[in-house]
Amino acid sequence: MKDTLKQQTKPKWFKGAWYSSPEEVTNPFSGESCLLTGAEASMYDFIMGATYTIEIMLDNNSNIEDPTITKLRKELIKGIDWFRETNAKAYMILLD
Description:
Blueprint: H1 2-7, E1 23-26, E2 33-36, H2 38-59, H3 67-86, H4 88-94
C-alpha cells in the first residue's frame, strides 16, 4: 500500500492539475476502458494534451528542435514513464 501511495505522489516537475477523484477512461481505438485514480487521470490527461500540442506545433511548421517542443517532449517522456510504472495494466490498455 505504501508503494502505491509513493508512486502516486505528484512529481515535482509536474505543473498540471492533480485530480482527487477516480475517472474511467476509454481508449478511443480499442474501446477498452480503465478506472484510473485521480492521480493517474491527471497524468493521462497531461500525456494526451502534450501529445496533441506537440503534433499541432509540428503541423504548424515549428522546428522539432524548438525549445518549447523540446521541453514538452522531455516532460511527456517523464509522464509516460510515471504512468507505466504506476499502472502498467492501464498503460497497456490506454497508451501502448
